[in-house]
Amino acid sequence: xxxxxxxxxxxxxxxxxxxxxxxxxxxxxxxxxxxxxxxxxxxxxxxxxxxxxxxxxxxxxxxxxxxxxxxxxxxxxxxxxxxxxxxxxxxxxxxxxxxxxxxxxxxxxxxxxxxxxxxxxxxxxxxxxxxxxxxxxxxxxxxxxxxxxxxxxxxxxxxxxxxxxxxxxxxxxxxxxxxxxxxxxxxxxxxxxxxxxxxxxxxxxxxxxxxxxxxxxxxxxxxxxxxxxxxxxxxxxxxxxxx
Length: 243
What we know:
Layout (H helix, E strand, L loop, with lengths): L4 E4 L24 E10 L12 E8 L6 E5 L7 E6 L4 E9 L5 E10 L8 E8 L2 E10 L11 E5 L6 E3 L5 E8 L5 E5 L6 E3 L8 E2 L5 E3 L2 H8 L7 E3 L6
């Protein structure tokens, strides 16, 4: 597919104020360098911004610092982004996070550049690409019947925005699709008369299949008789997926 790159010019920022000392370890002069930024969205077809983008955040930090200084960009009034108050001869990382209406990052891009002293323009460009999604397949069984599949179980992600939900089929299999790549999440399994089941946190970098290590749900009444206590809010379960 031919990738069409649309260059967007976003509102001029009066100042992105970095924390004092961000140029620590540099021989440059704090506050003199500046940069002009272009943001490029690949694969955008009908508009300058991809149709799912409702918010864009610029994140800036020196490469030797752990945390970014975030600054929102006004996507309704687009001119060149001018970033002031940068340290001369300091190397910075610039990252763009583009969010959809559910406040999930759907596009992302970053670049690293050395900020030359003024009057250098320090022109930089960031290409943002859609964040890939993955799928997770597995199976749910009934504790009483061993390997027999448990149909009609609701499987819901926790920790993703928006959450992703599906139901197990007649043989207990389910597939969650559209999971953002490398985003940690857990899963909750629910069905009437059964004790809720929660997985450990997982993060996927590719499609995964955990069907050979199925999850097992237990009736609330069986849980009490077997363990001598009520199940409370649910049961934790370790995930073992095949990647």
